[in-house]
Amino acid sequence: MSNRLAAEQSPYLLQHQDNPVDWYPWGQAAFERARREDKPIFLSVGYSTCHWCHVMEHESFENPTIAEVLNEHFVSIKVDREERPDVDRVYMTFVQVTTGSGGWPMSVWLTPALEPFYGGTYFPPTSRWGRPGFVEVLEEIARVWREEREKVVQSGKTIVERLRSLGGTTAAGAVPGTGVLESAVREFAASFDARRGGFGGAPKFPRPSELLFLLREHTRTLAKEPKEMVLTTLRAMAVGGMRDHLGGGFHRYSVDADWRVPHFEKMLYDQAQLVLAYLETAQVTGDRFFADVAADTLAYVRRDLTDPEGGFYSAEDADSLPPDGGVEKREGAFYIWHDDEIGEALGDHADFFRMRYGVLRDGNAPFDPQNEFTHKNLLYTARSLDEIAQMTGRPAAEVAAALDRARATLLAVRSRRPRPHLDDKILTAWNGLMIAAFARAARVLDDDGAYLADAERAAAFLRARLWRDADDTLLRRFRQGDAAVEGYAEDYAYLIFGLLELFEAGGDPSWLDWALTLQRRFDERFWDDAHGGWYSTTGQDASVLLRLKEEYDGAEPAASSIGVLNLLTLSHLTASTPNTPTPNPQALGVGNLGVGSSCVEKIDRTLAMCGANAAVHGRAVPMMLAALSTYHAGMPQIVLAGEPDASDTRALATVIRRRYLPTTVVVPVTAAHQDALARLLPWTAGLHPRGGRATAYVCRAFACEAPATSPDDLDAQLNALE
After folding, report:
1. How far is CA 116 from CA 46, 120, 273, in A?
2. Contacts of 408 (CB under 8 A, 6+ apart)
3. How distant, in Å, are the alpha carbons of 4, 40, 42, 139, 514 from that of 69?
4. What gap in Å lies between CA 65 and CA 559, rounded to an integer?
5. Assigned CATH topology for domain 4-166
6. Does residue 716 sit in helix, strand or coil?
7. Dist. CA 42–CA 45, nearest whole Å
8. Alpha-carbon distance 206 to 266, whole Å?
9. What is the DSSP string of 154-221?
10. Cis peptide, bond prior to residue 203, ω within 30 of zero
């Protein structure tokens, strides 16, 4: 019989609806029962594509004996960390402070007042691997609750007060200088793996914010080392096993230091941020390889992670049923290959494929008796096309064509296998990042408007389904017709980021207008006026004990980091910008988007707030450092006035596209949008096409160079700008 979780929308909670555990979702019903029965709460936090969450469910939560212990002594609550990052953040902070590490599944025991007193991550059902067994932990906690209740309750109160003090923000000084940026580059260089790419040893996680920071520092200083760290890392990731060489996209992380053996889940936020990193690297280098990887990743998102209405799904699992008809899910079963499967599917072209992707008769996976991949093949790029051409005596073009056909054939074969679980909830924050990626692709790649259409469709979906006009409130989650959970700081910040990228890509002022409304609400709901930066929550939910401010840029960047980048862009669409003189009002007029000097103050105070942390632990805050680098580099504007499909406009856009100008704000001006744009940005009112020709205006601090109507003239001005 199903439990209470059957009424929920979260795919993670629904995975546990048939457990014998008497689960509750996070909410008053569970809290009231804990208080009424005077029982401690067992809180289990995870997400639907988490491998070890699946393991703990199968071992413990499906076990009737363990469920009986839980049901007798505890009130058990399940939380999807992706739906409720506010709850996850509080108790993960507790687990990290008290154990020195964290992760999912997260297991925490709380008093009925929701104060934590014991916690950890995965517990095996019985003691092994140096970990205490789950049953033993449950029985000991139940005993302590019966016999030492007062001590436990006091411990919970003390811990919460300690966590509250840790969450305090120290007084900020001035905005850090460029020395902090240079120190951070040295910190990255000290941990850089020059041979294999990435930072540190195994496991290796992609953290694109690190790469985006290093690219900005390369551009600001012209130093080669930051760029080389990025190129080595992105190339290693793209040729390694962490990339899906048949279907596109990237897996979550590499188990080994060589990027060969992945953990196979695929997350939307990784795809979005990696697309941005590959697109920027393509501009820096002019190397089509990086652009192709970005395009391949976007093709995966279009095909496998896009809802029919236009939003983007959250993730695909690492585990699936094996293609041989087995009944137990295995990690990577969808992606790995026996050599004979490849030979049977590809026939005469199999050898080309084997050489390209390192396929061996006995498998290429590292041998491990416990490893499910032993005697199987994990695809990675083992040889270049030129090497294969030389080895086979065939022209490189013929090799490339044969490999294209082989990939298509094997992708079709793979599509008939049992697919991994799809987490089909649509999260506003992650969709904001993906909108930014598609919009940036529209600016960098020449695709006849398809990427822009994808970005606009997703933004329209969010506006229709996850935005409440009645009270200007953003919601976080949509699934199967149901929109729920008021948005957190990252939902606002990431969506604003996506909308600003969308405005720069297509010039539709309605996206800028919505971004401005969201920015106002973001500030009203989350801004910390005492110390600067933005809190993660509004602080209005009494069940969330701590109002925290995320400053660490992890797999997802902190809301404050993206918030500063957004305000830097907005400030350079207004007449009030950091590090720039007062604009020439006679030449351009003065715009005010409702942010103005307040916008600049928030930028300065947030950068100052992060200064002490950035100076000591630069690697912890790479996206904030990217914002600081942008702040010091300055942000020119390029206004491109002309019809988007006209050949002269496209010629000027191509000049801009092939430049890496990460701190430049691009403002498209079209006849259809000119008047609406001028109402938002009065300084653009006089910037028209000259002499009937598309015209580019290159500006600093709203003072512009002579209008450029030819690609050569624009190229010369951008040379001077660089």
Report:
1. 17, 11, 34
2. none
3. 18, 13, 11, 8, 51
4. 43
5. Glutaredoxin (3.40.30)
6. helix
7. 10
8. 12
9. HHHHHHHHHHHHHT--PPP-SPP-HHHHHHHHHHHHHHB-TTT-SBSSSSB---HHHHHHHHHHHHHH
10. yes
May I ask the CATH class of domain 636-722?
A: alpha beta
- 210-226 pLDDT tens trace: 999 999 999 999 999 99
pLDDT at 584: 36
The CATH number, out of the four listed (3.40.1280.10, 3.10.50.40, 3.20.20.70, 1.50.10.20), of the domain defined by the range 176-306: 1.50.10.20
Q: 312 forms bridges with which residues in the sheet?
A: 306
Torsion, Cα 453 456 457 458, to 10 degrees, reads 130
- List pLDDT tens digits, range 624-642: 999 999 999 999 999 999 9
- Is residue 374 over pLDDT 80? no
What is the four-CA torsion angle of 538, 539, 542, 545, rounded to 10 degrees? 130
Give me the amino acid identity at 162: R
- The SS3 assignment for 76 reads strand
Q: Are 558 and 623 in contact (CB under 8 A)?
A: yes
DSSP for residue 43: E
pLDDT tens across 17-69, in order? Answer: 999 999 999 999 999 999 999 999 999 999 999 999 999 999 999 999 999 99
Distance CA 122, CA 102 (A): 10
Quote the DSSP letter at residue 427.
E
Take residue 720 and report the two structure tokens written for it: 């001077």
CA distances from 346 to 247, 334, 398, 405, 644 (A): 17, 18, 15, 9, 44
Alpha-helical (H) ranges within 358-486 are: 385-392, 396-415, 428-444, 450-465
Do the two domains 4-166 and 636-722 of this chain adopt the same fold?
yes
In sequence order, the 6+-apart residues with CB closer than 8 A to the CB of 639 are 667, 669, 684, 687, 696, 697, 699, 704
Q: Is the pLDDT of residue 70 over 50?
A: yes
Q: What are phi and psi of 548, to 5 degrees?
A: -100, 160
Which range among 66-75, 126-135, 147-156, 460-469 shows the weakest confidence by mean pLDDT?
Answer: 126-135
By residue count, the chain amounts to 722
Closest of 156, 10, 28, 82 to residue 542, by C-alpha: 28
Distance, C-alpha 403 to centroid of its chain: 31
The reply to whether omega before 105 is within 30° of 0 (cis) is yes
DSSP secondary structure, 574-617, as one string: SS--TTSPPP-HHHH-----S-HHHHHHHHHHHHHHHHHHHHH-
| Tokens of residue 157, six digits | 């109160």
Q: Integer distance in angstroms from the first to the last C-alpha of the chain?
A: 66
pLDDT mean across residues, the chain: 93
Q: Could you tell me which residues come within 8 angstroms of residue 347 by beta carbon, excluding any fewer than 6 positions away?
A: none
684 has which bridge partners?
none
pLDDT tens-digit map of 382-412: 999 999 999 999 999 999 999 999 999 999 9
Angle at alpha carbon of residue 343, lines to 338 and 346, rounded to 5°: 125
Q: Where are the domains of the chain?
A: 4-166, 176-306, 335-416, 636-722
Contact in structure between 167 and 546 (CB atoms under 8 Å):
yes
3-class state of residue 621 by DSSP: coil
Amino acid sitting at position 455: A
Residues 494/429, Cβ–Cβ less than 8 Å: yes
Residue type, 143: R
Query: Virtual CA dihedral for 346, 349, 350, 353, nearest 10 degrees?
Result: -110
Kindly report, residue by residue over 258-278, the tens digit of the pLDDT: 999 999 999 999 999 999 999
The pTM assigned to this predicted structure is 0.95
- Whether 480 and 309 have beta carbons less than 8 Å apart is answered as no
| Inter-residue contact 34 to 40 (CB < 8 Å) | yes
